Amino acid sequence: MTEKFYLTTAIDYVNGAPHIGHAYEKILSDVIIRHKRQLTDKAYMLTGTDEHGIKIQKTASAKGITPKELCDENFSKFEKAWAELEISYDQIIRTTDEKHRKVVKQIFKKLLENGDIYKHSYTGLYCSGCECFLNPKDLTEDGLCPDHMKKPEEVTEENYFFRLSNYKEKIADYIKSHEDFILPSSRVNELLNQLKDIEDISVSRTKASVEWGIGVPDDIEQTIYVWIDALSNYITAIGYDIENPSEQFKELWPANVQVIGKDIIKFHSIYWIAILMSLGLPLPKTIYAHGWITIDQSKMSKSLGNVIAPHDVLEAFNLEKPDAFRYYMACAAQTGKDGNYSDEDFKEKVNADLANNIGNLLNRTLNMLVKYFDGEIKTEFISDNTSKIAILAANTKTQVIERFNKYEIAEAGNAIVSFADSVNKYVTDNAPWTLAKEEKMLECGQVIYNVLEAMRHIAIMLYPYCPNIAKDIMTQLNKESNFKYDELVWGGIKAEKITEKEKITPVFLRLDSEFAQDKKKGK
What we know:
Elements: E1 5-9, E2 12-13, H1 20-37, E3 43-50, H2 54-63, H3 67-84, E4 91-94, H4 98-113, E5 117-127, E6 132-134, E7 153-162, H5 168-177, E8 182-183, H6 188-196, E9 201-202, E10 204-206, E11 222-224, H7 226-231, H8 233-236, H9 247-252, E12 257-261, H10 265-279, E13 286-290, E14 293-295, H11 310-316, H12 323-330, E15 339-341, H13 343-373, H14 388-405, H15 409-430, H16 432-437, H17 441-462, H18 467-476, H19 514-520
Parallel strand pairs: 1-3, 1-12, 2-3, 3-4, 8-13, 12-13, 14-15
Antiparallel strand pairs: 5-6, 5-7, 7-9, 10-11
Helix pairs in contact: 2-3, 5-6, 12-13, 13-15, 13-17, 14-15, 14-17, 15-17, 17-18
């Protein structure tokens, strides 16, 4: 398969350090892109940081540094966090990049030339947290921003506006006629209702209000606002240019999926789409809006003191590799719904799924191979693809691909673990230890082969979630792998010596286990 796949994440605002809400989106995206790379050599992931705006300007001023110095400081924190979580993006864009700034000005001029931008004096309710004007009907009964629970400020300015209202019927028709455009589909009615009352939007602020940003071309008094600046990163990063778009842009755009949080779906599914329509560019195939991550059932809040950095979790559980955290976060919530993080649930789930289910299954089966057959697979043990386990492996592969095609990441992970459950049951039902005791060595060897071959399949399918554990499984099986889906053909383990007693080690230690504690103490 050589079809391209282009994934973008939302770009993170660098007014502070990353927390596990940021990590959730990046892990989801990374699991998707790693899966797609198992199917194609043309999968590309873009992430980035949003580095302009009044909040950065104010925070930098309060710290006595320049906005760029603040951006550089916090960008490095995001970059370090994604490295620690092994987020395998192909590119990370910063909206302070000169290439981005140049093309954003081109885009603004093009929209102006198209008649979709006009200058207008406006009085409205501005929320500095959202960095946007709010309609009175969007506020709480007490007149507060529902997301930040603060009263917006009444602002009067002469700004440039984008004729968003001209596109609302076209956007509504597009959403209705493309069932995969907005996922999950439960978000569609919400968007269609928002479109009914959509108004033109401000796409600039006065320099007196917001100095830190990209200047409006030919107007030294205005700064380009977030909608054109930040949203355009998805095309500027890959070489969009009004006059001479790059070959990379021509190959990758439109995006196959744009992964965002549910709180910014309106901006991506309405504002961004209208901008693309005005530019005459194709629209992304899917906009996938994930839910939020709560902490112990409470929304993350600095005032509550429950904001957790991803590094804190790795450190608290002494995790040298991020696989357990990646797996837990990717499976934390069903498609589009909110998920919850708690230390206890994290420990229970990864112990149950990764240590007890998958890790223990591999460990005890390899030990039986050593005990009964000196670690060697014999030719007569090898089954064909008509065996019950082989058929179940093929069905699981199909199910996982189908789930990923709908961006049902947690559900795909559950399908892999369910397959491991079935293999564990197969071991219990067929009891190779009993077969060996009864001297039915052929049948015993066949059961062991089926389990180890199933483990090879599990490793490949689990790879996007737990790349290090997957590699460790392959090492234990004495197999090299590129973790491509074309390797998911039954019979990959051949007749050969697989292992020896001293080479068998757990691929994942139970959290808080005696062995894990020894490792923590450096024993």
